[in-house]
């Protein structure tokens, strides 16, 4: 049985190590725009059935049987898409989503092309006036802000209006669209604040902000990370203690095996 305890405790250490890795990534991204924290879900694994429930005993049936668990493993990591707080920046191209949804951006061909989805709305104009993310990914549908534009207004429903130098009138420059998914937790994290569609997420549902259950756009603001440092530190302490306890189980099982070995030798 000591050998079983060694392997069981090893699965606990391995699972808690993954948990600590996830917590470390959450804490590392505490100041990442629109970052969504992850949580780890564990599950128990195979059981050794020494006696099945209902098995016949000496004079009667055994009511519960004997089951020896063989450890744990990471079942999944969930991304928590709760709203982060909105931080006022006063930059005209900083856009935050208040509610559900993602901005859609065009991915370059060298990383597979197609569409990416993000809640990080720190946009800027590129050399051609197109609104792009810091990584150079263009907003989709494209919105171009000409060089002679002196004022940009983005309404909560995503309508972009501009005023050019020498003019007092605002003209429409484009319409921001948002996308949402039946299962946002099924999106693939690509990095650079980008998520990708997957079979688990389902296809995107696109509409203007404020329509079809989508959130609204807040100009001059960015969404902060939803990582709560205190909660992550508490979770890290719990994972560390669980790791230490599993390590202690291995030490205890090793001591038992050492006693058995000494008895055999004697």
In short:
The protein is of the alpha+beta class and 266 residues long.
Walk me through this protein's architecture.
It is a single chain. With 266 residues, this protein is of the alpha+beta class. It folds into 2 domains: 2-81 and 227-265, no CATH class; 86-223, no CATH class. It has 2 helices and 20 strands. It has helices spanning 2-28, 229-265, and strands at 38-44, 47-51, 66-69, 72-79, 86-88, 95-98, 102-106, 115-118, 124-125, 131-132, 138-139, 149-154, 159-164, 171-175, 178-180, 188-191, 194-196, 205-207, 216-219, 221-223. Strands 7, 8, 11, 15 and 18 form a 5-stranded antiparallel sheet that branches. Strands 12-13-14 form a 3-stranded antiparallel sheet, with no helix packed on it. A two-stranded antiparallel sheet has the order 1-4. Helix 1 (2-28) runs antiparallel to helix 2 (229-265).
Chart the SSEs and their pairings.
Elements: H1 2-28, E1 38-44, E2 47-51, E3 66-69, E4 72-79, E5 86-88, E6 95-98, E7 102-106, E8 115-118, E9 124-125, E10 131-132, E11 138-139, E12 149-154, E13 159-164, E14 171-175, E15 178-180, E16 188-191, E17 194-196, E18 205-207, E19 216-219, E20 221-223, H2 229-265
Helix pairs in contact: 1-2
Can you tag this structure with a few keywords?
266 residues, 31% strand, alpha+beta, 5-stranded antiparallel beta sheet, single chain
């Amino acid at each position: 049985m000591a050998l079983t305890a060694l392997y069981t405790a090893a699965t606990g250490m391995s699972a808690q190590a993954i948990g600590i890795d996830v917590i470390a990534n959450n804490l590392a991204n505490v100041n990442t725009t629109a970052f969504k924290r992850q949580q780890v879900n564990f599950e128990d694994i195979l059981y050794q059935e020494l006696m099945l429930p209902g098995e016949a005993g000496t004079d009667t049936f055994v009511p519960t049987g004997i089951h020896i668990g063989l450890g744990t493993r990471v079942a999944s990591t969930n991304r928590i898409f709760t709203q982060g707080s909105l931080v006022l920046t006063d930059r005209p191209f900083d856009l935050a989503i208040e509610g559900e949804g993602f901005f859609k951006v065009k991915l370059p061909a060298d990383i597979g092309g197609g569409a990416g989805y993000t809640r990080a709305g720190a946009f800027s104009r590129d050399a051609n006036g197109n609104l792009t993310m810091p990584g150079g990914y263009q907003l989709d549908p494209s919105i171009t802000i000409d060089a002679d534009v002196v004022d940009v207004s983005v309404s909560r429903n995503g309508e972009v209006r501009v005023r050019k130098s020498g003019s007092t009138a605002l003209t429409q420059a484009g319409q921001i669209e948002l996308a949402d998914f039946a299962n946002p937790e099924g999106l693939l994290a690509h990095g650079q604040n980008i998520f990708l569609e997957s079979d688990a997420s389902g296809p995107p549902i696109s509409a203007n902000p404020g329509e079809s259950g989508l959130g609204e756009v807040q100009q001059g603001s960015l969404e902060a990370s939803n990582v709560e440092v205190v909660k992550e530190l508490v979770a890290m302490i719990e994972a560390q203690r669980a790791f230490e306890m599993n390590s202690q189980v291995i030490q205890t099982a090793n001591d038992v095996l050492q006693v058995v070995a000494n008895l055999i030798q004697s």
